[in-house]
Amino acid sequence: YQRRVHGDFEKNFNLIEKMYKGEKLEYQQQAEKYLEEHQIYDMFEYLMKALLKEKPKDPITYMINKLEHPEPKRIFIMGPPGCRKKEKALTLAEEYGYPTVSVGDLLDREISKKSDLGKKIAAAKSKFTFVEDAVVIELVNQQILDLEKNGKDYIIEGYPRTRVQAIGLQKMGIVPDNFFLFTIAEKFIAERVKANLKAGEVSEGGLQKKVLTEAEADTIAKNVSLEYNMNIKDVKEAFSGSYCEIDAGQDHDTVVNDIARIMKLKIKSNAPRRPPRVLIVGPPGSGKTTIGRLIAQKYDLIYVSAANLLNGETSQKSKVGRVAAQLMKEGELVPDEMMIQLVEARLNQSDCKVNGWVLEGFPKTEGQMNMLKGMKQVPSLVVVLQIDDDIVYERHEYKKIDPITGEVYSLKGTTLPIEEETLARLVSRDCDQHEIVKKRLKSWKEFLPKLEETYKDRRLSLNAEKTVKVLVESISEAVENPVYQLLLKKNSI
């Protein structure tokens, strides 16, 4: 009897323990899913690093402000006279849409104002010497304060040039995200300054225009080069370990591309990470397919296109395919039930679960969006491409399809070679006609506010008129660093 009682007790105890372990595992899985879906791991890692660095007296208020007011990206570019740093800075500014401050331009503008500072600047230039630090710091600091208030990323070119300027930057609490220091062979510095002087130009050292003799130009060029090299050693010391040297002797595009590559490098988070799940949506002709494929290829994600799923059904001449083909021809949306059935089946396949996915062109209605939630397929990032109506119509005007392969081509602005045989058989699609595009555009605009509100905590809005390279880099930054995405929230790039 005792053995039986003991056996029953042990059996019940094991059952209870098994149930407890099962509930505990389920709880852990649910907790982990919540923490990852809402980027909690990354957010706390980001805040912890900031806390240890700043050590604020009121950490709670500090963390709240840190999340509500993300810091801008600060890019500083410095280099010797004659390295054409301004040209390169302006190219980057145009590429990324960053406001740019050139110290040389600041000094010239102050001279034109005929202010007290302007007179000091003019006097220094007339003597072929660099402008004193206090004057430069006062002008640059004001520009930086204005840029910081706007909270936008920015580029400062030609600063800091001396140790005093570098320390002044540090006293403001400004830590460059990237500090690029251009280098060129020693012999070229004096040669390029001399060439500028002989041409009667204002050099990047801030020298006044004046007709000079060969000997005078030689002496000034050597002095400018010497002074730069003496000062830049102190700047390197002040920013030891945080500046990046770039060979400015290379061609313009190579230098700019090197900077762009370094700018997008991110320190990878050590937080647990589920495979990315990226939605890419936008009006017709916004480039969703191109961007979606590139992102999927870059991160080895499964590319899922709503249009491709429908085309697959159409080519099989299934019931869904026949209905979808007629609706698409008329510019109407395919019923939500049909779309969600196709999308759900694809996302539930093992390759999507294991590798993550890029879903392009879905959802297009509030019903589809709600059904996506019901599937428990929560995207980690929602990319919304934005573009003017005129460009949408123009892009569709030049779209053609290969009736044999089903591949769609754009005959305007494409850099991809198209074989003559393929080009000869390309035809227009009914869905690219102006009235059909107009109808699709109207549906998109009606749906957009609901989509933006639903995904406001993980939405990245991008101007689709920017280059593919810039768009891919912006999306990559959000994919690799969810904290960046979290802080962006409603900001558009």
Question: What low-confidence regions span 5 or more consecutive residues with pLDDT below 50?
Answer: 201-208, 266-272, 489-493
Describe the strand arrangement of the main beta sheet, using strand numbers.
Answer: 2-3-1-4-5
Beginning-to-end CA distance, first to last residue: 77 Å
Strand content: 5-15%
**Rg (CA only):** 30 Å
The helix fraction, in percent, is 55-70%
Given the helix and strand composition, which structural class is it?
alpha/beta
- Could you report the average pLDDT, rounded to the nearest whole number? 79
Q: What is the overall shape?
A: globular
Largest sheet: 5 strands, parallel
Discrete helix count: 22
For the secondary structure, the number of strands is 12
Note down, in words, how this protein is organized.
The chain is of the alpha/beta class and 493 residues long. It is built from 22 helices and 12 strands. The strands form 3 sheets. It has a 5-stranded parallel beta sheet, with helices on both faces. Strands 7-8-6-9-12 form a 5-stranded parallel beta sheet, with helices on both faces. Strand 10 and strand 11 form a beta hairpin. Helix 7 runs parallel beside helix 8 and helix 13 packs across helix 14. It is globular and about 85 Å long.
